[in-house]
Amino acid sequence: MTATLTPPTSSDTTPHEPYRPKQRTPFAYWRSRFDVKASPYLYIAPFFVLFGLVGLFPLVYTFVVSLNEWNLLSGPAGFVGLDNYVAELTDPFFWNSLFNTVSIFLLSAIPQLVGAVLIAAVLDQNIRAKTFWRMSVLIPYVVTPVAVTLIFSSAFDEKYGLINNVLQTLSIDPVMWKTETLPSHLAIASMVNWRWTGYNALILLAAMQAVPRDIYESAALDGAGPVRRFFSMTLPSIRPTMIFVVITATVGGLQIFTEPKLFNPTTATPGGPQRQYQTTVLYLWDLAFNRQNFGKASAVAWLLFLIIVLFGVLNFLISRRIASVESRFIAKKAIKKGKRS
Amino acid sequence: MSLSRRTKAVAAVAGAAAIALLATGCSAGDSSSSGGSGDKVELTVTTFGTMGYDDLYAQYEADHPNITIKPTNIDTGDNAKTDWQTKAAAGAGLPDVQAVEEGWLSAVMQVSDQFTDLKDYGADEIKDRWVDWKLAQATDKDGRIIGYGSDIGPEGLCYNRTAFEAAGLPTDREEVATLFGGDDATWDKYFEVGQQYKAATGKAFYDQSGFLWNAMVNQQPEGYYTKDGELNVEGNKDLEKLWTTLSSATESGLSANQTAWDWGKGKAFTDQTFATFVCPGWMLGVVKGQVTAAGGDASTGWDFANVFPGGAANWGGSFLTVPTQSKHPKEAAELAAYLTDAKSQATAFGVAGTFPSVTAAQTDPAVTGTNELSTFFNDAPIGEILAQRADGVVAQYKGPDDSVIQSQVFGPAIQQIDSGKADGAAAWDNALELLNQLVVNK
């Protein structure tokens, strides 16, 4: 940030200014200088102070903890360098948790985005009671995840759950939703999808509405049907928003905790009897609070942080590439349009 | 999924919270500022589950005008453990009186110096009130008494009369006790009766294997650790033999492979999915709660027999401790002593079904008489039966990782035999592998 005003210096005052009686007092001068230079920083300071307090400090402190052998209750027991990281990177349970996280993430993110785009496209049409439909898709997002998990957990119950009861009346074998890997991932992904699809749909809808209508009209006049218009015009136009949605879904998906934690809350090992759906955050919680290994839990937290940063950078690179393609695409359009008119 | 999609909103909320903290900062400080003994003292108490103390608090406040009690009750023992651990690790925020469950007592004992030695506040004068093993559990390795025992969990056998009748087995609770071998009841006999039941009805005999395994281990003079604190699972012939007995019974179909603590929201208790159930005193309230939740009542047929396979066993029970963080250890110790005296424990039993650890309370008419719970169990003399079931219980040494071994080493193995995914031998090997990974090479 640069200051827009340059304070007057003696060399600036030209001799043909006789009406200026004296120099401004140093105090007023410094005050105004301070105001100009520092005020903007003061205005934004609260956020950064809070971020430092509740974001940066825990981050650094967690790193310090991760370099020590550290029992949750009895405290630090010696510096071990990167041993905790090495131990976790060779621990099959860490990799199991990472596999579960990515699996649940993919099972939730992909159907969720496809569904959100379709819902947004429908809501973008001229339908009756627009506001009603738009608010309706947001309702699952308003419900607290704990309540969502309780309801889904009951429906997915293996012996008494609604879904298996229906399957059995149709003479289909019951599915072991809570003790087998793929079914449990599907069940948890369904909770995530239920909660987030509508939210993402609304964001994508906003992007769709920003697409100039005259492009659609000219395309329609050129004979492009609705499907063609959707794939060739709507989708490319909302790409930056898609990238945003993908990034937030990635960050959130890698940190999933509530759903697997409460999916089967009575199980002895958090995340399923054989850790079938123990995600990484759940694993680190288990390490810290059941196994009291604060050092290793902190190491896992940092590993997860690095993985999320990695995903974020990847997303950023992809999005920058797409954005540049985007601008070329729009520039070409503009040229074409110019030629036509 | 994503928890912080809108950084700005979060910042705004955080800002508001920070201001609120500043505004309330002074009032939070007030409670900890202590003065002379005549001054007003506010004591914070953290309990969990149902401990039946509410009326006792009111009584204590009436008797001690300078004391105000601020109770917090946490829903389950596990959540209370997390709460305690977090505050203990942070070094601040613990109450003056903290209830501790037997299941995580071993974790507490690791840091017993963070708890006040109650001998400094008169524990020696009252230590004879408890059954001796309860006092032993609350004594740390340096001989400091860090907790006053509240309830204990002597185990008896719950059984379903209707189910027993359908299988042609006796239904009278004394005949049932004899059926399982009375005072000489063994696990072999229990599984033998189970086979008879299974042959007659084709149904499972117990809900799942975990509670049985828990009882089997707790009955041993030494469990997962030796008395000297050495880990003792691999190569422990006693445990291995018990595991074989349990897993072969389970493999023959005696387990209903239910999810413990869920039981289909209680439905498994009402549709005769299983016929017997492991019942420490406090579990009677759980059974009643489950049956009621699924729409059943006393006529569902649950009864309580004065017998337990393998002899006397204890599961659970709690202690009241005074963390060293407390600013009023003297007043806190006095309150803990009051809440655990014979009269208070008898009162709590009437409210919450928690069986007293104080000998005098075990014969109190409020405990031995009939109450709501005994009506539910076909007028079984619950208090009397539990008092007899408490006879012969010994305090087993629990090592620092006892609860991890119980839940994360044997929990998965139990699930494997219950669901038929592995036979007993394979599940035992899996358990040992988990033990090496989670406990030995942690």
Automatic annotation (TrEMBL), chain A:
One Pfam family cited in the UniProt record for this chain: BPD_transp_1
Keywords assigned: Cell membrane, Membrane, Transmembrane, Transmembrane helix, Transport
Domain ABC transmembrane type-1: 98-315
Annotated family: Belongs to the binding-protein-dependent transport system permease family.
Localization annotation: Cell membrane
Residue ranges with Low complexity bias: 1-13
Coiled coil: none
Origin superkingdom: Bacteria
Positions of region (Disordered): 1-20
Topological relation to the membrane, as annotated: Multi-pass membrane protein
Stretches that traverse the bilayer: 41-64, 102-123, 135-156, 196-216, 237-257, 299-318
Name assigned to this protein: Sugar ABC transporter permease
InterPro entries: ABC_transporter_permease (IPR051393), MetI-like (IPR000515), MetI-like_sf (IPR035906)
TrEMBL record, chain B:
One Pfam short name: SBP_bac_8
Source organism, top-level taxon: Bacteria
InterPro entries with a match to the protein in the record: Bact_solute-bd_prot1 (IPR050490), SBP (IPR006059)
Signal peptide: 1-28
Entry keywords, A to Z: Signal
UniProt protein name: Extracellular solute-binding protein
Lineage: Bacteria, Bacillati, Actinomycetota, Actinomycetes, Micrococcales
